[in-house]
From TrEMBL:
Residues 43-267 form the Xylose isomerase-like TIM barrel domain. It comes from the Bacteria. Keywords: Isomerase. This is Sugar phosphate isomerase/epimerase. It comes from Marinobacterium mangrovicola. The keyword Transcription does not apply. SUPFAM superfamilies: Xylose isomerase-like. Gene3D superfamilies: Divalent-metal-dependent TIM barrel enzymes. It holds the Pfam family AP_endonuc_2. GO terms for molecular function: isomerase activity. InterPro entries: IolE/XylAMocC-like (IPR050312), Xyl_isomerase-like_sf (IPR036237), Xyl_isomerase-like_TIM-brl (IPR013022).
Amino acid sequence: MRDFSNDMENLSLNTATVRQRWNLEQIIDGCARHGIVDISPWRDQVADCGLEKSAKLIRDAGLTVSALCRGGMFPAADARGRQAAIDDNCRAIDEAVALGSRSLVLVVGGLPEGSRDLEGAREQVLDGMHSIQEYALSCNMPLAIEPLHPMYAADRACVNTLKQALDMCDRLGEGVGVAVDVYHVWWDPELREQIMRAGRSGKLFGYHVCDWMVPTQDLLLDRGMMGDGVIDLKKIRGWVEEAGFNGKCEVEIFSAENWWKKDPDEVLKTCIERHQSVV
């Protein structure tokens, strides 16, 4: 069983964690200075910096890329919108390859505008993923479905449990797995069972950590630093280790009124401390 606490080699920073005050170039420099060897950048940050420049900065700093955030958003009200999503996901695959990313995270999308058909939206997700799967395989780019908390079912992701995501993986087959974000799945009574299922099938592609604050002030932008909330991070980490996960422990914190306002160097120091003591 792998233990990825107390090991900087196993820590990754999702660049959203300090995005408010640092651009991607500053984040890469900050991670290098603090000894964080892996990042998971967002596509908008990469676009602002430039794809070729981003890839060079990452290489020159000696960093690796655990995942690119994000593709997905497949459902749409008409065929034109669905094709636009497919085209954008193919571009995301190209960007992930250029960055040397080990996976592309997919936030699959919610209900099309004007729709109440949740099952139909999930079928659109499957159709969209099937449309990009062959291209992703040809590029050797794993696709990681990230199930989101049910509060996002309407607008961000109609895949809301790890079981749903893995059922999709079973239908799609090769090259598709899951990213487990504790913020979205910590509440699930089937979580351990489904993490083990992902491990047995070789579908556990990513593991993201933060914490759930009580009370939560904003359902999108009030994630907590690890140890500040109510998620039993050590227990879930133990399950992930037991399942044989051999990737990075990725810190991903959206915190508009707290951590995004702090000195990013302080944020990185705290991430490292909590990774070693809490996660």
